[in-house]
């Protein structure tokens, strides 16, 4: 066996060896700053796998692979479930109370009661049928196709319901219909019923109809434009206003501003 001896020599600069001092560790205090609360919006899609018509049935919806009905703050999508060439051949029945972030529907929607609030831009291509209950929210709801308003409320004066070019809104029946919202028309409004009342809520009870330059409003029969609660209600006509049928049409407490045509 061969033994090897290794000698390690250490050289120091200077005449004396420096002593190393043990420095105390510096403690740093970590601060935790809370983040703002954020709500993750969910997309809920109509499948019609249940009865195919009832909004409140969870089996008609899908969220992340689960059958879950829409909840507050959701983005709701209703694709074309029937004939792909026809929008609105399926009519979904709504009777709930919910505030959504948005709604995009290729099919028709009937509000039978409760309240539907929309916070952001939404669209219904198959038409909206407002029978009872309320449509509200600060978002803009654009309606394509044929829609009907026979009762209930259009609420929230900061929100807007838009009848798109080529779309139709039929205002029918004798049940009072409360307008507490902006109703903007680039299509056709046929007012064949009665009981269109501007104003409902005591706070900001503003109701406004804006008939734009490409819009037509047909007042047929004895339908009037009246007031339920006083405020600066207005009918602003930039398009065509047509009066026909028996009886008279009066504006009571609603300012008629005309820069369009009257027939």
Report what the structure shows.
By secondary structure, the protein is mainly β. The protein is built from no helices and 25 strands. The strands form two sheets. Strands 4, 6, 8, 9, 11, 12, 14, 15, 17, 18, 20, 21, 23 and 25 form a 14-stranded parallel β-sheet that branches. It has an eleven-stranded mixed β-sheet with strand order 2-1-3-5-7-10-13-16-19-22-24, with no helix packed on it. It is elongated and about 55 Å long. It starts with 42 loop residues before the first strand and ends with a strand. The N terminus is likely disordered.
Helix content: under 10%
Major sheet: size, sense and barrel closure? 14 strands, parallel
Report the strand count.
25
Low-confidence stretches: 1-20
Radius of gyration: 32 Å
- The helix/strand class is mainly beta
H and E order: EEEEEEEEEEEEEEEEEEEEEEEEE
Strand content of the residues, in percent?
A: 35-45%
First-last Cα distance: 123 Å
User: How many H/I helices?
Assistant: 0
| Outline | elongated
Nearest-integer average pLDDT: 87
Quick description:
This protein is mainly beta and 263 residues long.
Keywords:
disordered N terminus; mainly beta; 263 residues; eleven-stranded mixed beta sheet; 25 strands; elongated; 14-stranded parallel beta sheet
Write the layout of secondary structure elements.
Layout: E1 43-46, E2 61-62, E3 75-78, E4 91-100, E5 102-105, E6 108-118, E7 122-124, E8 128-130, E9 134-136, E10 140-143, E11 146-149, E12 152-154, E13 160-163, E14 168-171, E15 177-179, E16 182-185, E17 188-191, E18 196-198, E19 208-211, E20 216-220, E21 225-227, E22 234-237, E23 240-244, E24 255-258, E25 261-262
Parallel strand pairs: 1-3, 3-5, 4-6, 5-7, 6-8, 6-9, 7-10, 8-11, 9-12, 10-13, 11-14, 12-15, 13-16, 14-17, 15-18, 16-19, 17-20, 18-21, 19-22, 20-23, 22-24, 23-25
Antiparallel strand pairs: 1-2
